[in-house]
Amino acid sequence: MRIAVYGRLIHKEAIPYVQELFDLLTERKIDFYIYEKYYNHLYNNISFKHTPKTFSSIDTKGQHNTDYMLSLGGDGTLLDTITLVQDSNIPILGINIGRLGFLASISKDEIRACIDALENRSYTPDPRSLIHVDSNVNLFKGHPYGLNEFTIHKQDSSAMITIHTYINGAFMMSYWADGLIISTPTGSTGYSLSCGGPIIFPASASFVITPVAPHNLNIRPLVVSDDSIISFEIEGRSEKFLASLDSRHETINSSIQLAVRKESFQVTLLRLHESNFLDTLRNKLGLGYDRRN
Q: Given 75, 126, 226, 246, which residue is catalytic?
């Protein structure tokens, strides 16, 4: 078994848990290698019996035979791994040493159970669809896909913008708003939810279109099939707007052509058998929790 380990930074309170992980991998003679920039943060904080191997990118042709990608951090860290695994079919398992950990569902107290599950293959694959951005310019550093959402937003404190939106080439409506979110089912519990969008189950073949602070109050979030191509024309007093894909951002102008569609490949998250999406909704969002008790 070979494991790639990705992270961003290491905080003081997380050091014992990260040390436990690498001690376990070494003790069980599991082959692992660490994202190069992350190792630079670990160097003075974590003890290794031997200098570990590092990587800066994943060989998507499988020449490294990576079996799993471990993401150490919160949900933002896990979203970063999407651009590393690309279409390699390497499963991703998120260990939450960050904050909320909605996607990174393994708690830092479950590290031993996590490694046990990988060795025994006692986990559940959880395939997730991605959103792809088409444009007439190169955006998002050659990785025009994301797990959560694509967003068009006004820049800074400029006035609201107008986003003319089309479904499969047919005009749908114009949004006068601060922005517009197109989310996957996975992203429906993120930014879209905070703007009033619905929760969509991961296997739902759909996109959620959610306006951000719309001026026309009769506008509501819409759920459309993910075999749709959604395109946009943007107008505003400002010459520049902000486009984001998960946690990555680009400054654009109205001359840039934009459309989103379902990506041709999926990514697979792993979860332990004991947990499922409904458990996550109850535990992380407090769904159905009776606060009178």
A: 75
Question: Alpha carbon of 134 to those of 88, 170, 222, 252, 263: distances in Å?
Answer: 21, 17, 21, 13, 10
Q: Which of 251, 262, 270, 209 is nearest to 81 (CA)?
A: 270
Q: Residue 50 gets which letter from DSSP?
A: S
pLDDT at 246: 95
In a domain, 247, yes or no: yes
- Could you tell me if residue 121 is inside a domain? yes
Cα–Cα distance, 131 to 214 (Å, whole number): 23
Is 292 part of a structural domain of the chain?
no
247: confidence class by pLDDT, cuts 50, 70, 90: confident
Look up 279 and say whether it is catalytic: no
Q: What is the dihedral of CA 94, 99, 101, 105, to 10 degrees?
A: 60
Q: What are the pLDDT digits (tens) for 156-210?
A: 777 899 999 999 999 999 999 999 999 999 999 999 999 999 999 999 999 999 9
Q: For residue 209, is it within any domain?
A: yes
Same domain, 87 and 163: no
| Full domain range(s) for residue 221 | 131-262
Q: Are residues 47 and 141 in the same domain?
A: no
Answer yes or no: do 89 and 136 share one domain: no
**200 within 8 A of 206, measured Cβ to Cβ:** yes
0.70 cut: is pTM over it?
A: yes
Sheet with 240-245, strands from edge to edge, namely 222-225, 206-212, 179-183, 149-154, 240-245, 248-253
Widest pairwise Cα distance in the chain: 62
CB distance 184 to 128 below 8 Å: yes
CA distance linking residue 195 with residue 291, whole number of Å: 23
